[in-house]
């Protein structure tokens, strides 16, 4: 069990990676079939947990994440939350949960000396539209370029290179480094040379991202201790029961991969 209160008290840096639109079954199959060997060597024993997202598309899912609500286990009993906004006086909070007294987690971490950094992927982080500024505005600094977005076939490498570069500039201060991986978001059919996005092409996108994400984790943790959280914000339907896309409460959209570890 991760003691997030201790993590913040000791000013341990935090890496939060969202693999945009990545379905749990896609991640699990890739893990079981050895298609993501670098990530598999870093994930906790057993690999990805199946969890359920608080939002069915990028914007509400990330608003929930940055408000302290990470994906939950698909069962009645839940482990203590990593962090939580200060609740009403009548509610008890486990001692290992970090309680922040601010409207969102990033502002709360800022009160404890953290600098929050966003390396965006999909256009909700691009500032190209009014909605594309909502999430970046939560951070102390945000970074987005067209080559970080999903149509670019080498987007994850470019995102990881940039994330490592900006993280180095704050070596003396704890950081909350957020990376939204766009490779697993449509379009990803190009990873199979196909014209249609499918669960198979999403799996190929994850296999592509595997080396770069592992490089991000190993490079950061080679210098100091980090809390690492990886999950998807939601999944995508590719024709199951006639559904396509996201924003629907279908199991392939609701079930997402999740992993957390201290390294």
* Biggest sheet record: 7 strands, mixed
Distance between the termini: 13 Å
Quaternary structure: single chain
Structural class: alpha/beta
Tell me about this structure.
- The protein is α/β, with parallel strands linked by helices.
- The chain has 8 helices and 11 strands.
- The strands form 3 sheets. The protein has a 7-stranded mixed sheet. A two-stranded parallel sheet has the order 3-4. Strands 9-10 form a two-stranded antiparallel sheet.
- The relative contact order is 0.24.
Question: Which keywords apply here?
Answer:
7-stranded mixed beta sheet, two-stranded parallel sheet, STM4013-like, Alkaline Phosphatase, subunit A, 263 residues, 29% helix, Alkaline_phosphatase_core_sf, Sulfatase, alpha/beta, Sulfatase_N
Which SSEs are present, and which pair or pack?
Elements (H helix, E strand, L loop, with lengths): L3 H6 L3 E7 L4 H9 L4 H4 L8 E4 L5 H9 L16 E3 L12 E3 L4 H6 L4 E5 L21 E3 L11 H14 L6 E7 L17 H23 L4 E6 L5 E2 L5 E2 L5 H4 E8 L1
Parallel strand pairs: 1-7, 1-8, 3-4, 5-6, 5-7
Antiparallel strand pairs: 2-11, 8-11, 9-10
Helix pairs in contact: 2-7, 6-7
């Amino acid at each position: 069990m991760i003691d997030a209160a201790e993590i913040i008290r000791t000013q341990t840096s935090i890496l939060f990676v969202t693999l945009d639109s990545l379905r749990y079954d896609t991640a699990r199959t890739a893990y079981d079939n050895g298609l993501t060997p670098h990530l598999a060597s870093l994930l906790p024993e057993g690999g990805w947990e199946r969890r359920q997202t608080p939002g069915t598309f990028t914007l509400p899912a990330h608003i929930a994440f940055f408000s302290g609500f990470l994906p939950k286990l698909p069962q009645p009993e839940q482990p203590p939350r990593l962090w939580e906004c200060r609740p009403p006086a009548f509610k008890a909070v486990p001692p290992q949960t970090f309680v922040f007294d601010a409207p969102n987690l990033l502002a709360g971490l800022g009160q404890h000396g953290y600098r929050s950094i966003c390396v965006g992927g999909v256009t909700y982080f691009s500032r190209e539209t009014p909605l594309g500024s909502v999430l970046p505005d939560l951070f102390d600094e945000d970074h987005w370029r067209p080559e970080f977005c999903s149509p670019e076939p080498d987007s994850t490498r470019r995102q990881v290179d940039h994330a490592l570069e900006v993280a180095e500039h704050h070596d003396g201060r704890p950081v909350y480094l957020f990376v939204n991986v766009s490779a697993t978001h449509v379009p990803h059919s190009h990873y199979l040379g196909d014209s249609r996005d499918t669960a198979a092409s999403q799996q190929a996108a994850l296999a592509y991202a595997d080396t770069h994400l592992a490089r991000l984790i190993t490079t950061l943790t080679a210098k100091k201790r980090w809390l690492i959280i990886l999950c998807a914000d939601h999944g995508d339907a590719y024709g199951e029961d006639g559904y396509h896309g996201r924003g629907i409460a279908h199991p392939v959209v609701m079930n997402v991969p999740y992993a957390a570890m201290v390294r």
